[in-house]
Amino acid sequence: MTTIPVIDLIAQYTTLKPELDAATQRVLASGWYILGQEVSAFETEFATYLAAEGPDVESSIDEVTAPLACVAVNSGTDALHLALRACDIGPGDEVITVSHTAVATVAAIRLTGATPVLVDIDPATYTLDPAAIAAALTPHTKAVIPVHLYGHPAALDEILTVAHKADLPVIEDCAQAHGATFQGRKVGTWGDLACFSFYPTKNLGALGDGGAVVGRAGELLARVRSLREYGWTPQARYISQTEGMNSRLDELQAALLRVKLNYLDQWNDARRCLAAHYAAQLPANIVKPVEQPGCRHVYHLYIVRVPDREGFRQTMQRAGVATAIHYPAAVHQQPAYHRGNIICHALPNTEQVLREIVTLPLYPQMTLDQIAQVAAAAQQSLAA
Predict the structure, then answer these.
(1) Residue 362: which of 285, 278, 295, 284 has the closest Cα?
(2) Which of 191, 154, 201, 226 is closest to 50 using CA atoms?
(3) pTM for this structure?
(4) Are 181 and 158 in contact (CB under 8 A)?
(5) CA 116, CA 112: separation in Å to the nearest integer?
(6) Shortest CA distance to 184 belongs to which of 272, 297, 365, 53?
(7) pLDDT tens column, 157-210
(8) Cα Rg for the chain, rounded, in angstroms?
(9) Burial 358-368 (b: 16+ CB within 10 A, else e)
């Protein structure tokens, strides 16, 4: 029996093979492989893409005078690390985020020497519960990182209200939400800075690691740009004005991302269409993803909840359907993170969700027949 994978990157490459191969050859023939024209063009194009407003926009980007800009870096983890450093966050500081996230979110905080403060999630969207922020505030709190997990935007209006009242910068973790919108504006345009990952499995993925920090052109983003390359500045290359690092997106990955960016909206539409078919065909006794009013979910992952997860996964595997768990353990449950290097608040929703979540196959090249096969297998599994 042919197994339906959780994601099929070969199918995506096959669809774009002529364009991706041409972009590769263009870079190889250029003789310039680090921070050249491809990176510069991608930074401009990605910022332009994010700045474009949807027809249902409720809060105009025009209210903010500075244009959106992008700094491409080596990974999503580096993007978060550099954004935090640009905000002068370091040892002795605290940063509020969630425990239910890819470990990269918390690893980036620890890389600065700051302490992650982990709070609970909204059990419907799996994103940061705005009500949990106020209880976690201390004189040491220096930033808030909402994670747009699985492709659904966090409650940005409420989060920004609480954070800005406390005079805290908000750094959006958009690693799983390329193209998602909140009140008609794309995620990544709301916070003081926003961070993206271009890991190959993302909605916009490279053929290797990659990331970006996005924000309004100004001092914060200028600091990110300097920090990504040893603290150099355009006016004084090879002279470190501050202690930076090496975190540069290479030309090849930028060229490939430029090709894929042209298809991002089309792929997100496909994901949303497939998710709608899942919602219609999956059994009623499975908890399906939600899309809150004013939000546009881009379904980086299609997450369901079932009471007997292991039994469900075994039955699905026998039916030829691969599944996964994103994530099998929250950060506060992992050996590297303990009471000495994190602050952990009560997490009842997080711990309940972790026992039940399962990732079903979803990728833009998936067919409706495959969706039907997955749904039928789920129906059989939950009826057993």
Answers:
(1) 278
(2) 191
(3) 0.96
(4) no
(5) 10
(6) 53
(7) 999 999 999 999 999 999 999 999 999 999 999 999 999 999 999 999 999 999
(8) 21
(9) bbbbbbbbbee
